[in-house]
Design a protein that fits this description.
Blueprint: H1 2-9, E1 18-22, H2 31-44, H3 53-63, E2 74-78, H4 82-87
Length: about 90
Amino acid sequence: HLTRTLPTRLPSTHIPVNAVAPGPFDSKMMKPTLDRFRDVIVDSIPLKRIGEPEDVAGPCLFLSSRPGAYLPATVIPLDGAALIKAKL
C-alpha cells in the first residue's frame, strides 16, 4: 500500500517510489526454511529454482536508472512466476 500511495504525496520531490517483492531466495532469513523444504518450494515455483542474486540485481538497476524513474508505484514480483501460478 505504501508503494502505491507515496508517489501521489511526493510528486514535487521527484523521488520515485517502487518496490521489489522477492519470492524465495537463498538468504539468512530463508535458510532454515530452505534447509527443510527446498524441494517442496522449488517444485511449487514454475521456473523450478530458487532466486539468485543476479535475479534481484537487474530489476534494482533498472528501477534506479533513468528509465525506471517513469514507473511510479510499481511493485516487481521476483518469484519465478509463483504469483501467476497462484492466480490461475
